[in-house]
Amino acid sequence: MKHRLSGGVQRALNKAAGIAGDLKTNYVTPEMILEGLLSQSRFRALVKEHGKGIDKGRKELIDYIKGNAEPASEGDQHLEMTFQMVELMESADNTVTNAGATEVDVPHVVNAMFQLEESYAAYWLSKHLTVLPSEFLSIVSSAYQTEQLAGKEETAEDEKPWTRYCRPLEDKDGWKLVGREAEISRALLVLCRKAKCNPVFVGEHG
Fold this sequence. Notes:
The protein is built from 9 helices and 4 strands; from the N terminus they run βαβαααβαβαααα. The protein has helices at 7-22, 30-38, 41-49, 54-68, 83-99, 106-115, 120-128, 133-149, 181-191; strands spanning 4-5, 27-28, 80-81, 103-104. The chain is mainly α. The model is unreliable at 151-158 (pLDDT under 50).
């Protein structure tokens, strides 16, 4: 890893390692880190707000983890990441590099999780969310960015000069973004940055 991990990601990894230890398996999987994220109240609240059947689904996730945990040989338990887990963390780390951020945060891990092929973790999220993955990623990015700004003195929104020329993404009344996949993908990368994280769409609707 080229970048340090945020507190939320580190806690999720610690939880995943704890699950692997309890199951006496050598392997940490993306599903375990997803359960690690769901054990955190902030991420769980976002999933519940924009999802359905989360409590029952979480039980299904835990059952999947237990049913697919490969037992370690007796007296030979040492933790390592599965190939998919390595792919997930490398992808999250690369996103941080591309976004010009300084640490791997929860939005980067969620973005990488969605990109995993044949992953139950990605399937679980897509199944239980009531919004598109790109929308949920934007929501998560905004929520975690908002927390970083909490407590900092900010000028009132209507006093900011830029509000005379453009409309914030949170204001969904009257604006549409259709057929702009490349711009949306770029905006998601910008939103994941720690600094210079304010994308601007220029032009007519659509």
